[in-house]
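Lecture 7 notes: from sequence to structure.
We start with the chain below.
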Amino acid sequence: MEAIKMFQDTDVDMSIFGPRMKVLKERMKAFDQYKISHIGRDGNQVAHNLARYALHTTSQIIWLENFSKFITNMTREEAIICIESNELVF
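Predicted structure tokens for the same chain:
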């Protein structure tokens, strides 16, 4: 939720995230409409499970093309839930 507050703030951000927020704000101008909101753990199980996975991984893993099966399966399951509940957002 802190990232949302940073994005919505119109003051110059002098934090370490300031340059990235500036780029993000510039890129968002390309859209006629957009909505940035917090999605709880229940609304984004893939991100939650990946974060938990990262806590227990001792080495760095980078997936560029062929994602791990567990990521593919989690993403597919979450997409099906979103489609069934009409919550799919683009």
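Points to note: The mean pLDDT is 79. Helices lie at 2-8, 18-28, 45-55, 69-84.
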